[in-house]
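Lab notes, practical 5.
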Amino acid sequence: MMLLHMLLVVMSITASTLVIADEPPVKKYYVEDIKAAMFKHIERNIDEDGIFRIRDEKTNEILELEFVKIHNPVRQISDRIYFACTDFRVHADPKKLYDLDFWMDIETGELRIYQTKIHKEPRKSLIYGWYKQPRYTFVNDKVVPLY
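Output from the prediction step:
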């Protein structure tokens, strides 16, 4: 009985190893790859005046923004999903900053942005001036709305 159990365990390990060996290895992307994909996406989506337009899901307004920077760190969320956070300023009022989050996958064999969300919006404090108010937070890499 013990011998049969050991034989089944060995066969199961061998079978799962064979299945894994048949799958192509997932290409690993690094910080410079993620940032390059972001710059490429932003460049493709800005107009001749450097304006990046995005529909605000909350207000349904089309925002006209200018790219400022990509935050560090950019990161890998899973085998096939990568993430970057950015700052964009309002075209008509550069003191107002939006924080936009971008999710990328590798389904096409290269990093491709598949989701963009407004993470933080500009708010004004009488004491501190303009700041970025978060709309959501992350719990185990999942978006959790704050309000």
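Observations recorded by the TA: DSSP finds two helices and nine strands in the chain. The CA atoms of residues 135 and 146 lie 6 Å apart.
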